[in-house]
Specification:
Layout (H helix, E strand, L loop, with lengths): L8 H29 L5 H20 L5 H22 L5 H24 L4 H23 L7 H20 L1 H12 L2
């Protein structure tokens, strides 16, 4: 069997730089085309946000010590910001806060639960990320109480799923968590 040759570090850096320059040129070209063809519709801003999003994910993924839970947290935050930006640019109808962010939070909690079940021995590596996602999932509840969100059903479900996920994770990892607390605090 013939295996592909591994690209050495200097070649991969050159490729990344060329792709970054190409991305910048595409972004500039799209902005120019947008201004010439349809200046009232900011579609180039959406595509440029997509390009920036892809680069942020790529840079994070290239890192050798990527923690999957950290990746889930990063995706949750970036996709949420991207949907709020898109909602804002098209006239802010509120769908990003009432629909997309709660769905993103539910998916993130499902991913964290799967991570905990699959690799429960590494729960402590994921615990801080799960707590941050839990704190982030309180955002829909805050938006509901402040009357910013008009349709609160998904926000309530997302917050409930986050709390349920934390309880399930604590139950699944209670023995390891107890051992870690005893070890850390010398109890």
């Amino acid at each position: 069997m013939i295996y592909p040759k591994k690209i050495n570090a200097s070649h991969s850096e050159i490729i990344v730089r060329l792709l970054l320059i190409l991305s910048l040129l595409v972004g500039i070209l799209l902005t120019i085309i947008n201004k010439i063809t349809s200046p009232n519709i900011p579609w180039a801003a959406f595509t440029n946000c997509g390009i920036i999003y892809v680069w942020l994910v790529t840079i994070y993924s290239i890192n050798k010590n990527v923690n999957i839970a950290g990746y889930v947290l990063l995706q949750t935050i970036l996709i949420s910001l991207l949907t709020v930006y898109i909602d804002y640019r098209i006239g802010f109808k509120g769908w990003s806060l009432s629909i997309s962010i709660p769905i993103i939070i539910m998916v993130a909690n499902l991913a964290m639960l799967i991570l905990t079940i699959i690799s429960y021995k590494k729960y402590l590596r994921y615990a801080i990320y799960q707590l941050i996602i839990l704190l982030f999932s309180i955002l829909p509840a805050i938006l509901i109480t402040e009357k910013i969100v008009t349709n609160p059903i998904l926000g309530i479900i997302a917050t409930g799923i986050s709390l349920l996920n934390l309880i399930i994770t604590l139950i699944l990892s209670s023995k390891d968590l107890k051992e870690a607390v005893v070890r850390k605090f010398h109890m």
